[in-house]
């Protein structure tokens, strides 16, 4: 009999309240804080010791990126929404991932390997909606946390996890987002920071918190971005936004523009932690998709005590929600700003031959 896969369990605010008092929540939040501490004051080029486990994860991500070359985007000239070839990439990843994980982590038992597989595949987005958001990014952290709970990753690996492994994942996701024009999950992207990610800002502000010269307002200085974006996750994220959005940060990312007025990076870093707790881990629409398995379990939740009739569940594109509560995946579809940027001034799609759609005047 195949091991049970991790499943979403949170349906209501009451369920989320119980989760936020659980051991899994505390372990997850502490893991994020530990990675933040490991990133504090350290640029991406910091020479951290890579264990065999961290090398294996980076190698695994390299192999996954190779899969994108096997599934090039299809001609999609009539739409700036997600490219259907993403589904082929995603399905191929699902098929290959069990063997890839067995190869890289041969000592992990099958019932635990199922958990690793579930979190990792979910960290690449949703294949039905062809979108990506903070909930998917959270799944990659859960994948790393599971490896930590299995003692494959050690506390001594924390610098390499955040500066090397997580950075490699973000680089891979930017390839995936750019190649397949992934749409922002939900109607508002990642709750106002940018279209896709949150944690590069949380970890990245910690990296900058001890810098002698750079200040939050430095994100508006093109020379600073050119010189330092390869060293700091926060600045790299800003540079990426600038590369795909035609409008200034004031219009394309007003929350990031507002945050740039904070006096110190330390204050920004503290605020990012509070915001992550409230706007990601504290939002039912996102956490309704959080997976619980053997490594990251949850006990009885309030909705478990209700009958099926009392729960009043709503089916939506292959998953369920409590009636009247939409998920991060269920907002109005938003076209990819990357797709808009890849339109040439003549109206032709640069990345897909044969395109002929004209750009709209805003992103």
Automatic annotation (TrEMBL):
Segments forming a coiled coil: none
GO BP terms, alphabetized: mitotic spindle organization
Domain of life: Eukaryota
Reactions listed under catalytic activity: [protein]-peptidylproline (omega=180) = [protein]-peptidylproline (omega=0)
A molecular function GO annotation: protein tyrosine phosphatase activator activity
One Pfam family cited in the UniProt record for this chain: PTPA
Keyword Cytoplasm: yes
Chief location bin: cytoplasm
Key words of the record: Cytoplasm, Isomerase, Rotamase
Keyword Iron tagged: no
Subcellular location: Cytoplasm
GO cellular component: cytoplasm; nucleus; protein phosphatase type 2A complex
UniProt-listed Enzyme Commission number(s): 5.2.1.8
PANTHER family for the chain: SERINE/THREONINE-PROTEIN PHOSPHATASE 2A REGULATORY SUBUNIT B, SERINE_THREONINE-PROTEIN PHOSPHATASE 2A ACTIVATOR 2
Family: Belongs to the PTPA-type PPIase family.
Functional note: PPIases accelerate the folding of proteins. It catalyzes the cis-trans isomerization of proline imidic peptide bonds in oligopeptides.
The name this protein goes by in its record: Serine/threonine-protein phosphatase 2A activator
Organism: Lipomyces tetrasporus
């Amino acid at each position: 009999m195949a091991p049970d896969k991790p499943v979403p369990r949170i349906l209501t605010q009451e369920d989320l309240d119980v989760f936020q008092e659980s051991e899994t929540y505390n372990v997850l939040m502490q893991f994020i804080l530990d990675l933040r501490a490991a990133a504090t004051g350290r640029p991406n080029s910091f020479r951290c010791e890579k264990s065999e486990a961290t090398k294996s994860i980076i190698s695994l991500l390299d192999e996954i990126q190779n899969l994108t070359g096997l599934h090039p985007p299809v001609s999609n000239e009539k739409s700036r929404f997600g490219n259907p070839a993403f589904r082929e990439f995603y399905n191929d990843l699902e098929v290959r991932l069990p063997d890839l994980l067995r190869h890289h982590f041969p000592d992990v038992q099958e019932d635990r390997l199922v958990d690793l597989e579930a979190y990792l595949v979910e960290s690449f987005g949703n294949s039905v909606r062809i979108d990506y958001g903070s909930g998917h990014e959270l799944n990659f952290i859960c994948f790393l946390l599971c490896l930590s709970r299995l003692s494959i990753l050690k506390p001594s690996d924390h610098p390499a996890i955040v500066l090397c492994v997580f950075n490699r994942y973000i680089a891979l996701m930017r390839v995936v987002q750019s190649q397949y024009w992934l749409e922002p999950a939900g109607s508002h992207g990642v709750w106002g920071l940018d279209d896709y990610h949150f944690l590069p800002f949380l970890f990245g502000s910690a990296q900058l918190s001890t810098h002698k010269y750079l200040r939050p307002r430095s994100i508006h200085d093109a020379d600073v971005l050119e010189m330092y974006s390869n060293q700091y996750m926060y600045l790299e994220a800003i540079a990426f936004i600038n590369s795909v959005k035609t409008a200034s940060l004031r219009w394309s990312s007003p929350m990031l523009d507002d945050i740039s007025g904070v006096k110190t990076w330390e204050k920004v870093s503290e605020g990012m932690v509070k915001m992550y707790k409230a706007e990601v881990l504290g939002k039912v629409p996102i956490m309704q998709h959080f997976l619980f398995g053997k490594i990251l379990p949850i006990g009885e939740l309030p909705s478990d005590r209700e009958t099926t009739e009392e729960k009043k569940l709503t089916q939506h594109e292959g998953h369920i929600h409590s009636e009247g509560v939409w998920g991060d995946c269920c907002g109005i579809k938003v076209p990819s700003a990357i797709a808009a940027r890849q339109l040439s001034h003549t109206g032709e799609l640069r990345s897909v031959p044969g395109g002929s759609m004209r750009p709209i005047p805003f992103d």
